[in-house]
Amino acid sequence: MRTMTAWRVDRPGPIGGRPLRMASVPVPEPGPGEVLVRVRACAVCRTDLHLAEGDLPPHRPGAVPGHEVVGEVEQLGGDDTGDLRVGDRVGVAWLRHTCGTCRYCRSGAENLCPFSCYTGWDADGGLAEHCVAPAAYVYRMPPRYDDVHAAPLLCAGIIGFRALRRADLPPGGRLGLYGFGASAHLTAQVAMAQGATVHVLTRSVEAQRLALSLGAASAGAAADAPPEPLDAAILFAPVGDLVPVALSALDRGGTLAVAGIHLTDIPPLRYADHLFQERTLRSVTANTRQDGHDFLAFAQDHPLRVTVTPYPLSGVDRALADLAADRVEGAAVMTLPEQ
């Protein structure tokens, strides 16, 4: 029996208590319609931190997190794997399975499927040397990016892309981004490529500098008012206190999209100050596969500067601790040497 090294959520709790443990586990076998992927890189997402700390309830004991996986197909699970072949370079993302028959799936909103399953939550993910994924839910990765710089595209990029769509930013509009980590630094570039003016609001001075270097029109503290009213805003920071702040910054008819899977409690909203004049508050729930294909095609055609902080496989717990303390510039990415 082949074994591999993997990080498992042992006992969810504060990251300082080391809720993840590195373990030797069997290399998984792909079932029908699945592929075994040899992991080359896996970005470490804030969702992984929420899973480790218990903000998101565990769906299975000892799960291996990680859902921004770039690797090589090593084994096919039967014949029902489409056009994938051994040796293909693929990406494994957050959305792992949908039923395909409910009204949400049939209407193109598979991200709302009540039977959806997720990589690193319902099934083991990519903070390991291998992972298994359904062939119908993996992506071919844009060749413009190497493995380390491609990994953050699979969640930070895709979710930010959907959040931008949900924010209903008009052509040439003014966009505010609250929080400026892995997802926001890619979303800002997409929006600017589409002609938007981007204002960044974040507590991290280093992130403010990164935002300005990428072309943001301004960068200030999270609770500051932007220099002009916003047509749309996206909240990436998992901080409910920023919801009224962002709503107050919107111009008439503006939309705030909340991009995270977890958010602390939102304080009371005052209708006249926060919602009147047809301001809209929206959530963002995962993504559809079409979002993923559309974004990866955009990323191939429009070169994005993907800022990464690399960590070895042995340093995943340190990556999560750095993420919790806002010490990561851009995206944290676990890298594996060529095998």
The number of helices is: 10
CATH class of the largest domain: Alpha Beta
Give the structural class. Answer: alpha/beta
The whole-number mean of residue pLDDT values reads 96
Please explain how this structure is put together.
This protein has helices spanning 46-53, 103-106, 147-150, 156-166, 182-193, 205-214, 242-249, 271-275, 289-301, 316-324; strands spanning 3-9, 20-26, 34-44, 69-76, 89-92, 95-97, 117-118, 130-134, 138-140, 174-178, 197-201, 218-220, 230-235, 250-258, 280-283, 308-312, 331-335. It starts with a strand and ends with a strand. It has 2 domains: 3-154 and 307-335, Quinone Oxidoreductase, Chain A, domain 1; 158-283, 3-Layer(aba) Sandwich (Rossmann fold). The chain contains 10 helices and 17 strands. It is globular. With 339 residues, it is an alpha/beta fold. It is 25% helix and 27% strand. Helix 4 crosses helix 5 (182-193) and helix 4 (156-166) crosses helix 9. Strands 3, 4, 5, 8, 9, 16 and 17 form a 7-stranded mixed beta sheet that branches.
